[in-house]
Structure formats: structure tokens, C-alpha cells
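Propose amino acids for all 303 sites.
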């Protein structure tokens, strides 16, 4: 089990009032170090231009990498570009690529990328919703195009729908995208009727949904769909903002529910892909809930 991170992910400076702040990642890293002294920590490399261009338009690369702002500026009302953001975004995407290389190269079976900014709202050509590059999409396309895999599943239990990931893959039958998310909530996509080319599976959950109903949604529809797809690699958009303490949403999950879904995903990966899972941090905005939930997540990946 490897953990990929980079100090630059702490330098992405969203400003004093922003929910997606460096302290989030600091709390995840501190909690993982305290809970699991034996983890194998690796410095994330930068994603290359070619790796990013598999998922993104040249204009988006230019906006993120070549604006070189001297102070914070907004790419959209929620999405900040600071002087260090380009480096953070390159390292976050590069973490996923390196983790895919390690897992598919049989160097390790599972990897968790403790990175920010998050990625799943970024589309082919738009940075939005705190996300600059769609790191999980870059990782999936690396597994397909560089390693020659034919079927990759992207599992997303962040409380927000991963509109960017869905948009990038909704016409690509090599990728299955399965998401549970609060609805209605930002970004207002993720209806059950959005099915792509039969490769998109959405489970919108009403506000106040608790762990039991969350587990039922995964057991009833999403996990069986992934099982039937027989993925060769499982990628996880691990957002912990469906926790009951999270300030940005109204679901009522506990850390144990994040442990449960991780356990289910490990069993699924053991059935289909020799246990291979790459998980990447997405959202989670209550520091205590985020720390507890990421520990519960990594504990199951270690099993
Ligand atoms: Zn989220």
C-alpha cells in the first residue's frame, strides 16, 4: 500500500474563507501518519503535458499552467488559481498516474493519493467546483492508453456528483462511472436517467440520507453494475463530504460507512482485478470528519 502526496498540494492557496483549504490535506496526512506508521509514502511526480491532454483541452492546460498569477484569482466563483496552484494541480494529477503505474506494474496492490486540489468537477475544457484538472480521469486514461487496459471502473462516493468525470467518459465504453451523491446539490447533474453509452450509473440521494440507505444504494444498483463490468482496475474518487458533520452538504454518513464501501470495493477488486485499487482524495470539508473518514478508508485498503 502506497500513499502518494506532495508538499505543493499544501501550497495551493484558496484564501482565508475557502472551504477547500490546505488544512484539509494536512489533517488527512497527520491522521494517516498517526494511525498507520508503516505506510509507504511517495512523492508525487508532475503529470506530463501528454498525460493531461488525454483528458483535457489545450486551452485548459494553458489557463492553469501558463497564467502564472502573482496573486489569487478566480477561474469561476468557487475555483481559485494561486501562484502555486499550477504546481499543485500537476502533482495531484501526477500522483494518480504514478499510482496507476505502481499498481499495474505490480509494485503495490493498492494506493491512496492524498492530494489537492480535488478533480472530479473539472471537465474536458473547464476548471470548476474547486477542481483544476480531473486527476481521476487522467489516471483512468493513463491506465487505458499507456497500459492497454480495456475496462476501468471509476467509483465516486463524494457527496457531489462528478460531472466532469461523467462528461469525459459518457461516450467511452472502456470506462464505467458509478456515483452516489446528494441531489439536489451542486453541480445539479447526476440524475439516474444519465446513463451515457450504458456505462454511467448514478444514485442520487435525498438530503438526510443515512448510512443504511447509502449502503442500500450501493448494494442494490452500483456495486452489481461494477461487478458485471468486470473492471481490470478500480479507481476511486474518495470524497468524504457525505459525512454528517460536513458543512457543504446534508447527508448523514459516519466514518464507518466509508469503511464499509471501501471493504466492498476491496472485495470487488479481489474478484476482478487482483485487488488493484487506486484511490484519490476528492472533497471533505470538516477537518475532524475528514481525518476519521480517510483513516477508515485507508484501513480497509490496507486489508
Ligand atoms: Zn464534494
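Proposal:
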Amino acid at each position: 500500500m502506497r500513499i502518494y502526496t506532495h508538499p505543493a498540494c499544501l501550497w495551493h492557496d484558496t484564501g482565508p474563507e475557502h472551504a477547500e483549504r490546505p488544512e484539509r490535506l494536512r489533517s488527512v496526512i497527520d491522521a494517516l501518519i498517526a494511525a498507520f506508521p508503516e505506510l509507504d509514502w511517495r512523492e508525487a511526480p508532475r503529470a506530463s503535458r501528454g498525460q493531461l491532454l488525454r483528458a483535457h483541452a489545450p486551452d485548459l492546460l494553458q489557463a492553469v499552467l501558463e497564467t502564472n498569477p502573482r496573486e489569487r484569482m478566480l477561474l469561476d466563483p468557487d475555483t481559485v488559481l494561486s501562484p502555486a496552484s499550477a504546481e499543485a494541480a500537476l502533482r495531484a494529477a501526477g500522483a494518480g498516474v504514478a499510482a496507476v503505474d505502481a499498481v499495474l506494474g505490480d509494485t503495490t496492490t493498492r494506493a491512496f493519493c492524498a492530494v489537492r486540489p480535488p478533480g472530479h468537477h473539472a471537465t474536458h475544457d473547464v476548471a470548476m467546483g474547486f477542481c483544476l484538472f480531473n486527476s481521476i480521469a487522467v489516471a483512468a486514461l493513463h491506465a487505458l492508453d499507456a497500459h492497454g487496459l480495456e475496462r476501468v471502473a471509476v467509483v465516486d462516493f463524494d457527496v457531489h456528483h462528478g460531472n466532469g468525470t461523467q462528461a469525459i467518459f459518457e461516450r467511452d465504453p472502456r470506462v464505467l462511472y458509478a456515483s452516489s451523491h446528494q441531489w439536489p446539490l451542486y453541480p445539479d447533474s447526476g440524475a439516474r436517467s444519465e446513463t451515457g453509452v450504458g456505462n454511467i450509473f448514478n444514485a442520487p440521494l435525498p438530503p438526510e440520507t443515512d448510512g443504511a440507505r447509502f449502503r442500500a444504494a450501493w448494494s442494490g444498483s452500483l456495486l452489481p453494475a461494477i461487478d458485471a463490468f468486470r473492471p481490470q482496475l478500480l479507481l476511486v474518487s474518495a470524497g468524504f463530504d457525505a459525512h454528517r458533520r460536513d458543512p457543504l452538504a446534508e447527508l448523514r454518513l459516519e466514518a464507518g460507512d466509508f469503511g464499509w464501501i471501501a471493504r466492498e470495493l476491496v472485495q470487488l477488486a479481489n474478484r476482478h482485478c487482483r485487488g488493484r485499487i487506486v484511490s484519490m482524495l476528492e472533497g471533505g470539508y470538516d477537518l475532524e470528519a475528514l481525518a476519521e473518514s480517510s483513516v477508515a478508508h485507508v484501513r480497509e485498503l490496507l486489508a
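The chain has a mean pLDDT of 98. DSSP finds ten helices and ten strands in the chain.
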